[in-house]
Design goal:
A five-stranded mixed beta sheet has the order 1-2-3-4-5, sandwiched between helices. The protein is globular and about 35 Å long. It contains four helices and five strands; from the N terminus they run ββαβαβαβα. Helix content is 40%, strand content 24%.
Length: 120
């Protein structure tokens, strides 16, 4: 399950996983952001805010996640990983190889810093 907060003024989406990611989570995010992308061309950014990565419910959810990234990454200006995961800096570095967005990582308690970085 993913909770979605969308600031339409800035085009910044905050994704807050609360359990294993499901196929329908990505459909819900797309339903919310696709009209904005159609009107504005891109999102201001995506913040992924989670203490630890919850994984995927099943293989189908993983495939849907990959397809979502493939279909949307060219329309996202920045991605912030806000997490306490030990490898979040490495994860941000790896993500940089697969998306056009500028990617940065922040500690879990630095959500406001991530939001400020998004707006620069």
């Amino acid at each position: 399950m993913v909770n979605i907060e969308f600031d339409e003024k800035t085009g910044i989406v905050t994704l807050i996983p609360s359990g294993a990611l499901r196929e329908e989570d990505f459909a819900n995010v797309a339903e919310m952001v696709d009209p904005y992308i159609a009107e504005h061309g891109e999102l201001g950014g995506v913040i992924i805010y989670t203490k630890t990565f919850p994984g995927w419910e099943d293989f189908s959810a993983l495939v849907t996640h990959i397809r979502f990234v493939k279909d949307h990454h060219r329309h996202i200006e920045k991605v912030a990983l806000v997490s306490d995961m030990v490898i979040h800096d490495f994860t941000a570095s790896m993500v940089n190889h697969f998306v056009n967005a500028e990617v940065a990582s922040f500690d879990y308690d630095a959500l406001e810093d991530a939001k400020s970085w998004m707006k620069r």
